[in-house]
Each structure stands twice: as structure tokens, then as C-alpha cells.
Specification:
By secondary structure, the protein is an alpha/beta fold. Helices cover 48% and strands 15% of the residues. The structure holds NADPH dihydro-nicotinamide-adenine-dinucleotide phosphate.
Length: 453
């Protein structure tokens, strides 16, 4: 059967077997479509039914999480862990706490994680987990009780050689602390079963910064390839969480000017550059909305989301040279992509997971804007998580500079792998194809080596 027909067959099967899981379907469609040149050049993947096997998670765990709120009432949420593929190493991938979390979200993120982890060159399989719990407006004690309740089930399924979760949206240092404490209480073991831990109890320096820094390193590598650099470039950044904040920090270090940030309520535009110190205080210490930023910095413009009721996003309508979508999935639409092109943007560098809609991605690829897919550009976070695991295994703690140098090298290698693969398959600079093929090939070859497991 021709590869294109097989891909269509598999996509139909996903639609039929996973109704309502639109984000998973979107992620699978993007990956499978870009594998065609590889499938045509090496028949083993179709002969060994790799596509049929790789789109089904090895294990999906869904569980009830009961916890007690401050009023003494029992609340119930759903907990998930999708252990998608362990062909090249133990499962690894973050935990997300957000009210929009569904099984489809978890499957899309875990599926992307397989290829991202493979691209890092490190021995880690793909997984993702989390809950539809909404941390916003909850007290510290409520967050703690929720994390303890979630771990009371999750601990049965993870382990330092089995599955090592980390943070993601809504899960930062505070949540990882509560989760780790509960694991230790339940098992009596002090082990590296989570990454993103505190520096006093097994964490790695530069883990907090790694995804944002890595995203900027990736963009710089890409621009350098075409004789350009980030120096002096106006950069639009979306989000104001972990990835966005450390993207902004590294952009300043590279001599670029980060002119925006955003959250679910609005966008800050500041032509002379975002005040990073003020942003960190508002978001990392007080967990407040960006409306607050506008009250402390009067040189900026605050644009509430209500200004774009038709679905565009203010952040992408600001003239910029490089765009760093770093908030959430499908946050950059076709309308936004057209605006970026009109304003002369030369590179869209995904810090978030799948922030670009399929229509926007098609437009970007057809209109000569360079594009760094998230599974390559934001892989610095998981790569540094693996460095945390290495430090835990050897009871060592490396300096910030040591970790940062390793991160820089890993990002350079990821870029090279994706770029060289694009050249190998006659689509030089198409990093969607390059990253998907390179990530897939290593996992698929390992699955073939390991037989019909
Ligand atoms: P955080 O929770 O720290 O920050 C998320 C940011 O995105 C917040 O500013 C949040 O605003 C905003 N946001 C979330 N949902 C929406 C929405 N629907 N519309 C507009 N803004 C929204 O998460 P991270 O920074 O850790 O993660 C950001 C992205 O990067 C995610 O896609 C994640 O999967 C990806 N990623 C993260 C890694 C990491 O190491 N943390 C590693 C690799 C990828 P608000 O506060 O108002 O909700």
C-alpha cells in the first residue's frame, strides 16, 4: 500500500477510535504527514506496522482525585498519566494542571513528547499527565492537599527507571515539592522520581530557566544558519509563565528586545522592552494578572483579550522580527500568521507545545517565514530534566554554568539533527519535516529492534 494511503487509513482510525480528541488528531496528522518521504525510502516501517503501533499509547491511566477544600468540602477531579512510548528509555514528560485538560490533551502532549525526547539524543521515552484541577484562586493548603491526593494514586505507576514526571502549565516548583513529599511519605524512598525539584533536595541548577533559554538558543542557531542573529531584533513573546519569562531573560542576554508578554486575560506591549524584574515579581511571587503590570509600568500598553473577539491575538499583531509563542496550544491562528507576515516577521519559534494552528502553520511554511517546531525548539526543558536525573543518579550537583553549557550544546545538536535531516530529505530548512523524521526514526528503529512488544 502506498504510504499516503496508509497515513490516511491511520488518521481515519484515530478519528474513529478517539472521538473528540481533536488536539491528539491534530498532532498525529502533522507528524504522520511529514513522515511520507521516510516511509517511501525505507519500507521496513510499513512492513513492521510501526504507524499502527506508535499512535497507540502503551498505557493510559485515568483516576479519581478526591481532595478536601478549605471549607472542609470534598472535591473531585480527574487525574491522568499517558505512558505513550518507552522504546528508547523510561517514560518522561510533564504534569499539567488546567481546567481544559482532557484525555485528548494528554494524548497530544504525550505523543509530541515521544519525538521531542528522541530528538534530544537522550534515552527517554514519551509521557504526559495532569489533571483538570484549576490551581487559580486556590490557597496554598488546597494546592498541597490536591497534590497529595493526586500522588496517592500516581505513585503506583512511576519510578526512577519507569516514569519520571516533571512540571508543565500550572505545575511549578511549589507543586513538585508537594508531590515529591507525598511520594516520599508513601514509599519511604528519597529518589529522583520527579524533575524540577528544589535545589536543596535534588534539583538541577538551570532547570527552571532551561525551556526558555533553550528556545532562544534554538532560534539563534536557526538564524545563524541564514547569516542572521537575534541581536537587535524585536521579539514578540506570548505567555508570562515559566517558558515566557526565561525566554525574555535570555533574549536580553542575546541583545534582542522582547517587546511583549501575555496571559489569559491580556497582552502587554512595551516598545523599549519588557521590564523583566517587574514581570517576575508579579508572576513568580504574587501570581497576579498582567493588568497589575500595566499599573506599575506606565510606559506600556495593556490590550485585554476582549479587543479581539473574532479570535486573533493582540500579541501577534505587534510588529516584530521574531515571534516566540510560549503560552499554550493553538494560540497562533491563520489571522495572526498573516499579520506576522505583513509586519515582516522572519521566524516563528515555538516555545509552547503546538501553539500554531494547522492553517497558520501551512501559511507560514508557504510564505517564506522560518519556523521552529516546538518539539525541537522547546526540548531544552526535558533535556535538562534528564541532566537532573543524571545528577541524582551520581549524587552530584553541577554548577549553573555547567548545566547551561550542556543545554546550549544539546540545543545546537537538536537544531543540527533537524536541519541535516531536512537536507537529507530534500527540504532544506523545513524543520517540521526534519524534526519529525529524525525523532520518529530513532524510536521506530528501536521498536523494530525490540520485536512485537
Ligand atoms: P505556565 O503555567 O508557567 O505559564 C503558562 C502561560 O500561558 C501563562 O502566562 C498563562 O496565562 C498562559 N496561558 C495558558 N493558557 C492560556 C490560554 N488558553 N490563553 C492565553 N494564555 C494562556 O506554563 P509554562 O510556561 O511551563 O508552559 C507554557 C507552554 O510551554 C505550554 O505549552 C507547555 O506545555 C510548554 N512547555 C513547557 C515546558 C516547561 O519546562 N515548563 C517544557 C516544554 C514545553 P494565565 O496565567 O493567565 O493562565
Amino acid at each position: 500500500m502506498p504510504s499516503s494511503q496508509k497515513i490516511e487509513e491511520i488518521l481515519t482510525c484515530i478519528k474513529d477510535c478517539s472521538p473528540g480528541q481533536d488536539e491528539f488528531y491534530q498532532a498525529a496528522q502533522e507528524v504522520l504527514a511529514s513522515l511520507k518521504p521516510l516511509l517511501d525510502s525505507d519500507k521496513r516501517y510499513l512492513e513492521e506496522n510501526i504507524l499502527e503501533r506508535i499512535i497507540v499509547p502503551e498505557r493510559t491511566i485515568i483516576f479519581r482525585v478526591n481532595w478536601v477544600d478549605d471549607a472542609g468540602k470534598i472535591q473531585t477531579n480527574l487525574g491522568y498519566r499517558v505512558q505513550f512510548n518507552s522504546a528508547i528509555g523510561p517514560y518522561k514528560g510533564g504534569l499539567r494542571f488546567h481546567p481544559t485538560v482532557t484525555l485528548g490533551t494528554m494524548k497530544f502532549l504525550a505523543f509530541e513528547q515521544i519525538f521531542k525526547n528522541s530528538l534530544t539524543g537522550l534515552p527517554i521515552g514519551g509521557a504526559k499527565g495532569g489533571s483538570n484541577f484549576n490551581p487559580k484562586g486556590k490557597s496554598d493548603n488546597e494546592i498541597m492537599r490536591f497534590c497529595q491526593a493526586l500522588m496517592s494514586e500516581l505513585y503506583k505507576h512511576i519510578g526512577k527507571h519507569r516514569d519520571i514526571p516533571a512540571g508543565d502549565i500550572g505545575v511549578g516548583a511549589r507543586e513538585i515539592g508537594y508531590l515529591f513529599g507525598q511520594y516520599k511519605k508513601l514509599t519511604g524512598e528519597f529518589e529522583g522520581i520527579l524533575t524540577g525539584k528544589g535545589l536543596n533536595w535534588g534539583g538541577s541548577r538551570a532547570r527552571k530557566e532551561a525551556t526558555g533559554y533553550g528556545s532562544v538558543y534554538f532560534a539563534e542557531n536557526f538564524l545563524n544558519k541564514y547569516g542572521k542573529s537575534l541581536k537587535g531584533k524585536k521579539c514578540a513573546v506570548s505567555g508570562s509563565g515559566n517558558v515566557a519569562i526565561y525566554t525574555i531573560e535570555k533574549l536580553y542576554e542575546m541583545g534582542a528586545i522582547p517587546i511583549s508578554c501575555s496571559d489569559s486575560k491580556g497582552t502587554i506591549y512595551q516598545e523599549d522592552g519588557i521590564d523583566l524584574k517587574a514581570l517576575k515579581v508579579i508572576k513568580e511571587i504574587h501570581h497576579e494578572s498582567l493588568e497589575k503590570y500595566a499599573t506599575v509600568d506606565c510606559k506600556c500598553e495593556y490590550i485585554p483579550v476582549s479587543k479581539y473577539p473574532e479570535g486573533g491575538h493582540a500579541v501577534w499583531h505587534i510588529p516584530c522580527d521574531v515571534a516566540f509563542p510560549s503560552a499554550t496550544q493553538n494560540e497562533l491562528t491563520l489571522m495572526d500568521a498573516k499579520k506576522l507576515k505583513e509586519n515582516g516577521c522572519i521566524l516563528v519559534n515555538e516555545g509552547a507545545n503546538m501553539p500554531t494552528t494547522p492553517e497558520a502553520l501551512k501559511f507560514i511554511r508557504e510564505n517564506g517565514i522560518l519556523f521552529s517546531p516546538g518539539k525541537a525548539a522547546n526540548a531544552g526543558g526535558v533535556a535538562t530534566s534528564q541532566l537532573e536525573m543524571s545528577q541524582n543518579a551520581s549524587m552530584a550537583q553541577w554548577s549553573f554554568e555547567e548545566v547551561d553549557i550542556k543545554l546550549r550544546t544539546i540545543m545546537q545538536n537538536i537544531f543540527k539533527t533537524a536541519y541535516d535531516t531536512s537536507v537529507e530529505f530534500d527540504c532544506e530548512g523545513d524543520l517540521v519535516t526534519g524534526a519529525n523524521i529524525a525523532g520518529f526514526r530513532k524510536v521506530a528503529d528501536s521498536m523494530i529492534d525490540q520485536g512485537s512488544i
